[in-house]
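Hey,

The postdoc asked me to send both predictions to you directly instead of through the lab channel. I've kept everything plain text so nothing gets mangled by the mail client. Protein one:
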Amino acid sequence: MADTTFILLIRHGENEYVANHKLAGRTPGVHLNDRGRAQAEALVKLLEEQPLAAIYSSPLVRCVETARPLAAARNLPVIEEPAFLEVDYGDWHGADLRELAKLPEWRKVQHTPSTFRFPNGESLREVQNRAVAGVEMVRQRHPNEVVAVFAHGDVIRTTLAHYLGAPLDLFQRIVVQTASISVLAFHDGAPSILAMNWTATLPKLEIKTDPAAAAHPTDGSAPSGDATAVIATAERR
């Protein structure tokens, strides 16, 4: 039988580092600010119709704080997963982005990120590899379910680039705002992207068995060839 999994990639809410143009990275103790807490509460309403089965999060506190209101509303635990941890920016942690933009290395980050390693930190290729491995782990663990994953901007953008089939050197073209939602769908393991940088109420995601629809899907996907396949539909509301 075919299986479908939806994964919602959700960026954490705003914090003072975002508001002040600083690179938080893995700096400990970076909490949501007032706007970030409001964004986290708003996600409860935005996702109220989604049949969430599990909630994963980067272990960093700003991600966990963004996930908690939704987890409380659904009576689900927040599963902390290191695969979704923020980039290790090394010596750049806590720096002002406006000052970093003046460095010659900044051009590499923007135009050839696949060749760049942050000083005493990670390469973006390593970030993409571990994040995609995390998504694949979640997909395999949750067949026929909808799962939320709370992570960080560059983690989400490099992941989306992978599933778009876009070169890592173009990932900077993808915009992922705080508390935005991007939606990956996997049908029999084959990925598709249903939404990126969504900040309004999502179409309702449903997973259901419908033999007729499996043979003649209405969502633009190819027929599965299995009359008892599990299919996914997205209804705009």
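Protein two:
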Amino acid sequence: MNALVLVAEDDPDVARIITGYLDREGLRTVRAENGQIALDLHQQLRPDLIILDVKMPKLDGFEVLADVRRRGDTPVIMVTALDEDLDKLQALRIGADDYIVKPFNPLEVVARVKAVLRRATGRSDSVVIRVGPIEIDPVAYTVAVLAGDTRVRVDLTATEFRILSHMARQPTRVFSRAELIDACLPESDTLERTIDTHASNIRRKLHATGLTALFEGVRGIGYRLTTTS
């Protein structure tokens, strides 16, 4: 299925131009006219990329970007005004993958979207993730623990795999339970204590391979994946 692009833009004419050009390139699009709707659609639809205007009603682009980054690593292209260099720096500091300056050429938007999607696909969908002795293959959907010449497979459920993969992309960072729910179980009404159950299962399965300290609970906050066992 072609990539889904969420266009968060309150100007209907600008949004229509962007979505029209992306549609012609075979990409799927959905529009959000304010920042709160953008966050709601991000959680519901899990788009492959977001085009995000800085000046948005309800929640501005920076607030939306910060929340998206707390949830995961969805690629984001920010749209900034011509003379607002601080907007560009702020967007990149929070975690934007790229930015486009208004007024823009729609063909440039398409080119930027394709480039960021290519980078994101390479980063998230095909590159094996390694944290210490743990090896995670997002394509084969497998997890293994390496010890010298020995490779021990770890059998995880789909939810456990998503949680471990999500955390492994930012090792040593502490993830709250709410963040893990948003990133790994977006369509469910999961309670935070359910994350504790999944985390306990992941830790138990890693312990069975000899890793006793890699997956840590952080009291009062959530969980962290360290780089040494």
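Summary for protein two, as requested: The two ends are 39 Å apart (CA to CA).

Thanks,
C.
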